[in-house]
Amino acid sequence: MQYIDNYDFRGKRAIVRFDFNVPLNENFEVTDDTRIRAAIPTIQKIFDGGGAIIAMTHLGRPKGVTEKYSLKHIIPTLEKLIGKKVIFAPDCVGDDAGELSKKLKPGDFLLLENLRFHAEEEGKPRLDESATAEEKDAAKKELKIKQKEFVNKLAGLADCYVNDAFGTAHRAHASTALIAANFPNDKMFGYIMNGELKAVDKVLNAPKRPFTAILGGSKVSTKITIIKRLLDKVDNLILGGGMSFTFIKALGGKIGLSISEDVELAKDILGEAESKNVKIYLPVDVITTTQFDEVFKGNGNVETKISDIRNIADDAQGLDAGPKSVEAWKAVLLESKTILWNGPVGVFEVDTFAGGTLHVAELVVDATAKGAYSLVGGGDSVAAINKFNMADKVSYVSTGGGALLEYMEGIDLPGVKAVKE
Ligand code: AMP
Question: What distance in angstroms lies between residue 380's CA and the mean position of ligand 1's atoms?
């Protein structure tokens, strides 16, 4: 494995897997360019080193060539951000791509059309529902062979491979994992990948103590592996949001109509936490409403009450952490030296129930200012920290989503493994 910092890009064509899966509006304009902006350091490094870039990415989930998902839509944004003209290949493995790649000069930027226009990228046959098991099997075998050709064609465009798409690193796709084998001595991570891996490793493998994790979101069942892994690592575990009610129920509390799942799961976690000396902090009070249907339609104009979390009215749902809960978490968080935050502690999308999550964000920011290392990651907590404009006040905000969660679970991500091996 090579490192982007010491790799000699002079005269080389680098094929770089980016994550330019950006949102577009109905006029096909990029509405959030964060992912492209994040890639600038890697782009700059290759250009400064005297290399040319062949950029590959997916956009959306097309099931074949689809105008809506064409990467030509991102060209104006890309040109503005990199400050130079983008050359476009209308098929990532077409003849044009081959010809254009041969002509590349140092400092050129060639963008390949959406990888997912080809089924070979994901390696999943695109059959309709009526296909028999045998047809599916045959299609899979055929696609495997075609996938090898696809990988070889992509690799044939370049002299070295850079993977800078952490968001898709948990997928064993042609461009995220398989292609690395074609560059045994010329494969490396870009700066986004390096940053993400370093941040998670720092938190999970060398945390300064006390180490506190805050887990929220709606379901405990989807986070069970992470919770169990964290029990071996953390000193304190704050459990908020929808998932906390399963624990309260397991402890004999009355949770009204609040969402909950299998209490045995919660009992098991509580028992394990005790045996591992991990302190669990659940909310003690919650903001409730009986008009929760309105809230889930996005309407925050409802009557609310603050309730003891163990004694919620039969017709109400708890939708946010209350003031006493936040006060109790404050002491824990401000003493922590490492903080990992995944998942909101309330329905933060609706302002009436965003207060708890906002307070948690403020506490993470305060703890960071006091010297703690804080990592915020996984879908909704990132959306929350962005909503509150605090992303630059914590140590690291991961863009990883599913990839981050799998990495935290201890899974060897195919995109990471392929470059390291
Ligand atoms: P997840 O995808 O599991 O991380 O869950 C994130 C979602 O959990 C967000 O959309 C929140 O609105 C939701 N959520 C947080 N707290 C609650 C709660 N008390 N009741 C229902 N949903 C919640």
Answer: 8
Q: Quick check: 233 and 259 in contact, CB under 8 A?
A: no
**379 annotated active-site:** yes
Query: Measuring from each residue's beta carbon to the nearest atom of ligand 1, which residues come in under 6 Å?
Result: 216-219, 222, 241-242, 259, 318-319, 343-344, 346-347, 349, 379-380
Ligand 1 pocket check: which of 218, 285, 358 to mutate, most ligand atoms within 8 Å of Cβ? 218
Could you tell me the pTM of the whole model?
A: 0.89
Q: Which residues of the chain are in CATH 3.40.50.1260 domains?
A: 13-192+416-420, 199-398
Our answer to whether residue 402 is catalytic in this structure is yes
Looking at domain 199-398, what is its CATH homologous superfamily?
Phosphoglycerate kinase, N-terminal domain (3.40.50.1260)
pLDDT in tens, 16-62: 999 999 999 999 999 989 899 999 999 999 999 999 999 999 999 99
216 carries an active-site annotation: no
Tens-digit pLDDT profile for residues 387-397: 999 999 999 99
